[in-house]
Amino acid sequence: MSLKLSKNRVNYLTKLIVDFIQKSEDIDYLEDLGNIRFKIYHYLLDELKLFEDIETRAQEKIVSQKKNVPEGSREWEILFRKYSNEELAKMGRNWE
Question: CA geometry: angle at 52 spanning 35 and 83, to 5°?
């Protein structure tokens, strides 16, 4: 359930977003598209890092339990989602 993306993939997604903004008649922008792309790129990297940290914390909680829960099992998936959602809730965010 990892959200890891290469920097090339993030760059590609950023390009798609900026292309959409540029082609859309419903979106007005005041900044240079290069600046917008730069900001989107770093925002995406920051968000991916945040979710990676949340995943790590959720995995640590599962591993620290007395009962050994095998990774990939249904129980592990349920606990992972639960702990991930708890971490996000602490930040005022939602996974879905």
Answer: 135
